[in-house]
Design a protein that fits this description.
Layout: E1 5-8, H1 20-36, E2 40-44, H2 53-70, E3 74-75, H3 77-82, H4 117-137
Parallel strand pairs: 1-2, 2-3
Helix pairs in contact: 1-2
């Protein structure tokens, strides 16, 4: 495969396992590999995770700083799902929730599906892909 864009959502499960510096080094390594291969890395902020709120804030600051420093596209995914019922989380408070049709409904962008994490993730990724396609890829 020869992708031109890599959407990077890294760290949601790492907040309880890694220090901020280890997370930062891992993310920088992934970004470096993408850039070396001619792939545009697109970073995404993390959604809140119960019990790890401060860690998520720290990781999101790292993500934003790297995005600013390297001039990389950034999706504020954490912000996009913050207003969803239960923050877009399933009843366990950890895993993303799915629309009523499960994964088959994860790309159904009708209004009744927008309160679900997977639907919002896919919608924000498609919006970003559209912008990158129009503003970067078509112009090169």
């Amino acid at each position: 495969l020869k992708p031109s864009i890599a959407f990077i959502m890294l760290g949601t499960n790492d907040v309880g396992l890694l220090s901020g510096s280890v997370f930062q080094n891992n993310l920088l390594r992934i970004i470096t590999l993408c850039i070396e291969r001619g792939v545009i890395p697109v970073l995404t902020t993390l959604p809140t995770r119960r019990g790890y709120e401060q860690d998520v804030i720290e990781f999101n600051l790292i993500i934003r700083d790297i995005s600013d420093t390297y001039g990389l596209p950034l999706i504020d995914y954490g912000g996009a799902v913050r207003g969803l019922p239960n923050g877009g989380l399933d009843i366990d408070g950890v895993h993303p929730n799915l629309p009523p049709l499960g994964v088959r409904g994860a790309a159904d962008f009708r209004a009744e599906n927008l309160p679900y994490w997977y639907v919002m993730r896919n919608l924000t990724l498609l919006y970003t892909l559209d912008v990158l396609w129009r503003e970067v890829i078509q112009r090169s």
